């Protein structure tokens, strides 16, 4: 395993074992659910909007390392973004995972998931939280 692969793996496992922004969000103005029955992943995404800005993002749920890490990194990235910025990030993330586009720098840490493109059975794990986001805001 290359050093880069190892760093990617560690980042993924960190977010899986210690998910950021995990828990119910009091005063959520957006509440969206995503299910991926093929893997057993469930994500409930909660956002608190102030105007058109995402002031807070939290999630709860259970799932595999990929779905949990993706939701953890997504909620990190969403705070402080406007709705249109958030939807743009969702498009960029899905282009990376579904189409295999090279990761946009705006995706930050989420680029560690780029390799999921090579694992078609896991694409739905990585995109679960993002699909919930798009359904809620789109
Ligand atoms: Zn999964």
Write out key terms for the chains shown.
single chain, 138 residues, alpha+beta, 44% helix, binds zinc ion
Radius of gyration: 14 Å
What share of residues is helical? 40-55%
Amount of beta strand: 15-25%
Q: Which class in CATH terms?
A: Alpha Beta
**SS elements, strand count:** 3
Query: Segments where pLDDT lies below 50 for 5+ residues?
Result: none
Q: What class would the helix/strand composition place it in?
A: alpha+beta
Query: What spatial order of strands do you see in the largest sheet?
Result: 1-2-3
* Helix count from the secondary structure assignment: 4
CATH architecture: Alpha-Beta Complex
List all distinct small molecules, including ions and cofactors, that are bound in this structure: zinc ion
Distance between the termini: 39 Å
- Named CATH topology: Sufe protein. Chain: A
**Looking at the structure, what is the overall shape?**
globular
How many discrete structural domains? 1
Kindly describe this structure:
This protein is of the alpha+beta class and 138 residues long. The protein has a single domain, classed as Sufe protein. Chain: A (Alpha-Beta Complex), CATH 3.90.1010.10. The chain has four helices and three strands. Strands 1-2-3 form a three-stranded antiparallel beta sheet, with helices on one face. A hairpin with a 4-residue loop joins strand 1 and strand 2. Helix 1 packs across helix 2 (65-78) and helix 2 (65-78) runs parallel beside helix 4 (123-137).
